[in-house]
């Protein structure tokens, strides 16, 4: 079963976590997904292997960026795209404060969904959603034809 | 302020230690390849665990982002000539093509402007084909805050 076939089952069960097995890297670094007030929320569990700077006990920016990219893809699939995987074209992330050794959450907002391009904004936070630790905007190409 | 063309063996060792001290870099098996002439290269072996989604088998953008973040931040320290804490303010990555999970991913970064507080860095990620040519995967532009008060111990 492909991720897109698994998608409708996951939506019936309202269980986005069942999709994560189709995302090996997200799974490997400890990303999970739940619904909160009907919105998809991804969580990056704290683990030693996502630390970037031992001295400062700060999460690696790349790990936070991975969480933001993952929640963007999952949200596009969950809300819109039932036929194909979106392909990421570019990703622009701002780091607002350093990630502490604790769980990190993320959610995505689709700002525009066109025929070819989907624009997504994402934020990541730890204790307080109104105080994000990182924010990104990301462009995805749908119907990628230039293969 | 121009950086030394070739870091001392001690500086090179310190950059290498700093890279491997990061658990996330170790998890991704990153290695410092070279550091000279204001350019710093890091490599990473690709493997199935790094795949974004099945089926498809292409590497997750986050892996590319991690190697670029690491090589760009170390490129700042190469230019500084010492280990000072730097903090990524922002990074924009253009994904130029999809990346199959085989072979080795390389990145090369350069700090092209350094002020008292800020460092401006660009980097590319690429693979090397069988003829030895670089095949670009992604381009990054990043800015870092340089925190002079905080020396990094390795």
What does this structure look like?
The complex is a heterodimer of chains A (147) and B (154). Chain A is of the alpha+beta class. Helices cover 24% and strands 36% of the residues of chain A. In chain A, the strands form two sheets. Chain A has a six-stranded antiparallel sheet. In chain A, strands 3-4 form a two-stranded antiparallel sheet. Chain A starts with a helix and ends in a 6-residue tail after the last strand. With 154 residues, chain B is α+β, with helices and mostly antiparallel strands. Helix content of chain B is 25%, strand content 42%. Chain B contains three helices and six strands; from the N terminus they run ααββαββββ. Chain B has helices spanning 9-21, 23-27, 61-80; strands at 31-36, 39-45, 84-95, 104-114, 118-128, 134-151. Chain B has a six-stranded antiparallel sheet with strand order 1-2-4-5-6-3, covered by helices on one side. The longest helix of chain B is centred in the middle third of the chain and has 20 residues, at 61-80. Chain A binds chain B through residues 2-3, 22-26, 28-29, 48-56, 59-63, 65-67, 69-70, 73, 85, 87-95, 98, and chain B through 21-27, 48-56, 59-63, 65-70, 85, 87-95, 98, 150, 152-153.
Describe, in short, the structure shown.
Chain A has 147 residues and is α+β, with helices and mostly antiparallel strands.
Given helix and strand content, the structural type of chain B is alpha+beta
Radius of gyration of chain A: 15 Å
Mean pLDDT across every amino acid position of chain A: 92
How large is the radius of gyration of chain B?
Answer: 15 Å
The residue-averaged pLDDT of chain B reads 93
- CA distance, first residue to last residue of chain B: 25 Å
Unreliably modeled segments of chain A: none
Work out the helicity level of chain A.
10-25%
Structural category of chain A is: alpha+beta
Quaternary status of these chains? Answer: heterodimer
Q: How would you write the strand order of the largest sheet of chain A?
A: 1-2-6-7-8-5
Q: Secondary-structure element sequence of chain A?
A: HHEEEEHEEEE
Strand order, biggest sheet of chain B? 1-2-4-5-6-3
The span between the termini of chain A is 24 Å
Number of helices of chain A: 3
Largest sheet, strands/sense/barrel of chain A: 6 strands, antiparallel
Question: What is the element string of chain B, with H for helices and E for strands?
Answer: HHEEHEEEE
Which pair has the most extensive contact? A-B, 40 and 41 residues
| E-strand count of chain B | 6
């Amino acid at each position: 079963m492909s991720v897109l076939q698994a998608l409708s089952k996951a939506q019936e069960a309202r269980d986005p976590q069942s999709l994560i097995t189709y995302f090996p890297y997200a799974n490997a670094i400890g990303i999970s997904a739940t619904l909160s007030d009907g919105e998809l929320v991804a969580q990056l569990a704290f683990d030693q292997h996502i630390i970037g700077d031992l001295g400062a006990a700060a999460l690696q920016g790349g790990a936070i960026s991975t969480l933001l990219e993952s929640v963007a893809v999952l949200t596009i699939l969950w809300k819109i795209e039932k036929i194909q995987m979106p392909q990421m074209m570019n990703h622009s992330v701002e780091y607002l404060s350093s990630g502490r050794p604790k769980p990190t959450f993320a959610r995505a907002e689709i700002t525009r969904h066109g025929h070819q391009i989907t624009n997504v904004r994402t934020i990541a936070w730890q204790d307080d959603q109104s105080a994000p630790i990182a924010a990104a905007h990301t462009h995805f190409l749908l119907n990628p034809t230039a293969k | 302020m121009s950086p030394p063309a070739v870091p001392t063996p001690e500086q090179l060792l310190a950059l290498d230690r700093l890279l491997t001290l990061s658990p996330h870099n170790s998890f991704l098996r990153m290695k410092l390849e070279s550091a000279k002439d204001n350019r710093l290269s890091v490599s990473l072996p690709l493997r199935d665990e790094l795949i974004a989604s099945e089926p498809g088998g292409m590497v997750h953008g986050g892996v590319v982002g991690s190697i670029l973040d690491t090589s760009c931040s170390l490129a700042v320290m190469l230019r500084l000539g010492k280990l000072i804490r730097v903090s990524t303010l922002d990074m924009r990555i253009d994904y130029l093509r999809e990346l199959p999970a085989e072979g080795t991913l390389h990145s090369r970064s350069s700090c092209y402007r350094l002020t008292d507080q800020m460092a401006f860095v660009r980097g590319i990620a690429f693979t090397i084909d069988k003829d030895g040519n670089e095949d670009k995967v992604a381009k990054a532009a990043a800015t870092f805050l340089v925190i002079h008060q905080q020396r990094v111990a390795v």
